[in-house]
Structure formats: structure tokens, C-alpha cells
Design brief:
This protein is mainly α and 40 residues long. The protein has one helix spanning 2-30. It has one domain. Residues 1-24 form the signal peptide.
Length: 40
Amino acid sequence: MKKSIYLAIASLLMVLASATSVFACGWIGYQPNTPKALRK
């Protein structure tokens, strides 16, 4: 029973991570100019 719960959490995290990376890539591509506050 615990194995299926861990598997569900892991798959959910993988989906969330892939969605976040796609969103971040789209956002970076949409805004190529980095704000001065984020430059270091």
C-alpha cells in the first residue's frame, strides 16, 4: 500500500517538475531581457 502512495507522489512530482520547466522555458523565451535586480 505504501509503495503505491510513494509511486503516486513521485509521478505527481515528475509531472509538476516537467510542467514547471516548460513554463519557465516559455517565460524566459517570452522575456529575454533579465531585470537588473536579477543580474549578479
